[in-house]
């Protein structure tokens, strides 16, 4: 057994002991069920831990992660998570959180082949193509990169709003608000991109304001 693997097993034991020391019923209460108010759709990047960023405890955030936090209408994994979160857990907020310095976004800005991920990045390249005139007008490469991160998050929020799952929830009067954030790896702070959508009536108005 290598040192790293042994370390994570030991860390688990220490975490259990620490959790029980603060609350003897900690795990018994968790096992009874979950009622998280938030679904987090984030990037798979190991530097973006959903619960820690918002100071949430286990049971408070339902999480789906993929490369570059994409909302793709043919992604049955994402749709299954969204359906369960909205229709079973009855979350009140769905948050798409991207991050500055995202490798998937960066890769989509170039033409190098990486491997099978090239197929996933096609979706990100489509976002760039949609906003290419504006993005290409930004001369500073870092600023263009950061702006693309923000634009992609916003587009994913609108993709989310157009899913049949969210549309049905709004049609039935369910309380559900969508949000978009960008997380700063070098600061720990999030930027609220102010794409807060709570009904079909908000869609066109917010889109016009944000693009």
From TrEMBL:
EC number: 4.2.1.1
Keyword hit for Lyase: yes
Enzyme class: lyase
Cofactor(s) required for function per UniProt: Zn(2+)
Binding locations of Zn(2+): 43, 45, 99, 102
BP GO annotations: carbon utilization
SUPFAM superfamilies in the record: beta-carbonic anhydrase, cab
Catalysed conversion reaction: hydrogencarbonate + H(+) = CO2 + H2O
Keywords in alphabetical order: Lyase, Metal-binding, Zinc
UniProt family annotation: Belongs to the beta-class carbonic anhydrase family.
Protein name: Carbonic anhydrase 2
């Amino acid at each position: 057994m290598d040192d790293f693997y042994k370390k994570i097993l030991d860390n688990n034991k220490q975490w259990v002991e620490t959790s029980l020391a603060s609350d003897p019923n900690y795990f018994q209460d968790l096992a009874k069920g979950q009622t998280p108010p938030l679904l987090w759709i984030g990037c798979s990047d190991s530097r973006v831990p959903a619960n820690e960023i918002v100071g949430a405890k286990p049971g408070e955030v339902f999480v789906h992660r993929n490369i570059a936090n994409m909302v793709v209408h043919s992604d049955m994994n994402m749709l299954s998570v969204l359906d369960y979160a909205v229709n079973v857990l009855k979350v009140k907020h769905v948050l798409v959180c991207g991050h500055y310095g995202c490798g998937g976004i960066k890769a989509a800005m170039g033409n190098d082949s990486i491997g099978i991920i090239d197929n996933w990045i096609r979706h990100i390249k489509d976002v760039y193509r949609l906003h290419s005139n504006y993005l290409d007008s930004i001369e500073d490469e870092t600023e263009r990169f950061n702006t693309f991160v923000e634009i992609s998050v916003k587009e994913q929020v609108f993709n989310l709003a157009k899913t049949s799952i969210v549309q049905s929830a709004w049609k039935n009067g369910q309380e559900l608000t969508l949000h978009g954030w960008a997380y700063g790896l070098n600061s720990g702070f999030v930027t609220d991109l102010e794409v807060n959508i709570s009904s079909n009536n908000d869609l066109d108005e917010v889109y016009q304001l944000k693009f």
